[in-house]
Amino acid sequence: NAGVMQNPRHLVRRRGQEARLRCSPVKGHSHVYWYRQLPEEGLKFMVYLQKENIIDESGMPKERFSAEFPKEGPSILRIQQVVRGDSAAYFCASSLGEGSYGYTFGSGTRLTVV
Amino acid sequence: ILNVEQSPQSLHVQEGDSTNFTCSFPSSNFYALHWYRWETAKSPEALFVMTLNGDEKKKGRISATLNTKEGYSYLYIKGSQPEDSATYLCAVSGSARQLTFGSGTQLTVLP
Q1: 3-class DSSP assignment, residue B93
Q2: In 10 A of CB A26, how many CB atoms?
Q3: Mind telling me how many Å the CA of A54 is from chain B's nearest CA?
Q4: Residues with Cβ < 8 Å from B24, sequence gap 6 or more?
Q5: Sheet of A19-24: strands edge to edge?
Q6: Average pLDDT of B77-86?
Q7: Torsions phi, psi of A15, nearest 5?
Q8: What is the C-alpha radius of gyration for chain A, rounded to an integer number of angstroms?
Q9: How far is A4 from chain B (nearest CA, A)?
Q10: HEC string of A53-102?
Q11: CB atoms within 10 A of CB A70
């Protein structure tokens, strides 16, 4: 039973390029969450998705960032026109349901913008 | 936005010592509290999920308690071992369904 798979593990982008981060949840989990860890900071919520729906995107910057979780395939976090301040570790987690269900985390994607 | 605070920020203990950390959160609008263990270069690993006031959970030498009325949870480690060294994260969900994480307590167990 594979856990949450994130790829790539490491991603280097030049300023102005696009970054695409992928997350395949645990089989059977329909709830996906993206968190960001900036250098020297804790995990900050970005977006919560269920299949084909964004439930809560209150933690995601309004510009340049978007997320999707299509009916088929992984969840994608997309960052357009990356800037140095986007350099961070991006973690995806999945769960069976809301609230009292535990999250299973992926190993993260470390994005470096040069 | 929930404010989840953890203390201490970091902690060094000797092997064999018992230790505990605190997680504080707003007692209103509480739904569930989660504890995670996070080792460097790995993904956070779920330890406990607690929802009821007075809940106590145990996993080996690690246990946790929950007081929702006063808004705190304690995580205890009995007889700390070097392999317990990690960051321990507390996270809380309220009416907003996602988890809000504290900044963690970084534990170092010295042999």
Answers
A1: strand
A2: 19
A3: 12
A4: B4, B5, B6, B7, B71, B72
A5: A5-7, A19-24, A75-79, A65-68
A6: 96
A7: -55, 135
A8: 13
A9: 10
A10: EEEECCCCCCCCEEEECCCCCCEEEEECCCCHHHCEEEEEEEECCCCCCC
A11: 11
Preceding omega of B8 cis (within 30 degrees of 0) = yes
d(CA B109, CA A7) in angstroms, rounded, equals 32
Q: Is A68 on the interface with B (CB under 8 A)?
A: no
Q: How far apart are alpha carbons B64 and B58 in whole angstroms?
A: 6
The DSSP call for residue B106 is E
Residue A27 structure tokens: 């089989």
Q: How much is the mean pLDDT over chain B?
A: 93
Q: Are B101 and A42 in contact (CB under 8 A)?
A: yes
Chain B contact for A33, CB < 8 A?
A: yes
- The whole-number average pLDDT for the span A49-56 is 92
B99 in reach of chain A (CB within 8 A): yes
**Rg of chain B over all Cα atoms, to the nearest angstrom:** 13
Q: How far is A108 from chain B (nearest CA, A)?
A: 7
In chain B, residues 57-86 whose CB comes closer than 8 Å to chain A: none
Q: What is the mean pLDDT of residues A69-79?
A: 95
Query: Which residues in chain B have Cβ-Cβ distances shorter than 8 Å to A4?
Result: 43
Angle among Cα B95, B101, B103 to the nearest 5 degrees reads 150
